[in-house]
Design goal:
By secondary structure, the protein is mainly alpha-helical. It folds into two domains: 75 residues, Multidrug-efflux Transporter Regulator, Chain: A, Domain 2 (Orthogonal Bundle); 59 residues. It is built from seven helices and three strands. Helix 2 packs across helix 4. Keywords: DNA-binding, Transcription, Transcription regulation. It holds the Pfam family MerR-DNA-bind. This is Cu(I)-responsive transcriptional regulator. InterPro entries: DNA-bd_dom_put_sf, MerR-type_HTH_dom, MerR_fam, Tscrpt_reg_MerR_DNA-bd.
């Protein structure tokens, strides 16, 4: 059996710098359920296992979890996080590739912001035109249900 396939006892694994899933969760700030989810989505390699079948994680796995968590907090979708992880793991990467990915994400976020601002303006207009009284007539509902020229 090769060394990579050799399963260790949990205590031996810990002595060799591995962490149980609960410890990995605590160190990375990513809960155990999400760690398993990220494994299922191939963001993380499948966890190594002890003889007793406990998942164990290396320091590099912890760093990957931290990267994933921070990228998620910045709104990166999973596919872009996969790209970031590949770049992070590639010692020959060009920083311009990372920057290009980030700039693309910024452009997507700015587009979403514009779309949301337009939605807010429309909703403000609808609310401003609504009497908001006890009458059943409602400008907001009438406007939302109104056919536009492209629908007729």
């Amino acid at each position: 059996m090769s060394k990579n396939n050799l399963k260790l006892e949990l205590n031996t694994a810990k002595q060799n710098g591995f962490y149980e899933i609960s410890e990995a969760a605590k160190l990375s700030g990513v809960n155990a359920k999400m760690i398993r989810y990220y494994e299922s989505k191939d963001l993380l390699p499948q966890a190594k296992r002890t003889i007793s079948n406990y998942r164990i994680y290396s320091a590099q796995d912890i760093q990957m979890l931290i990267l994933i968590k921070r990228a998620r907090s910045l709104g990166f979708p999973l596919e872009q996080i996969k790209q970031l992880l590949k770049l992070w793991d590639n010692q020959y990467r060009a920083s311009k590739d990372v920057k290009q990915l980030v700039l693309g994400h910024i452009a997507e976020l700015e587009d979403k912001i514009k779309q949301m601002q337009a939605m807010c303006q429309t909703l403000h207009h609808l609310a401003d035109c609504c009497y908001g009284n006890k009458d059943p007539q409602c400008f907001i509902l009438d406007s939302l249900a109104e056919l536009t020229p492209t629908q007729s």
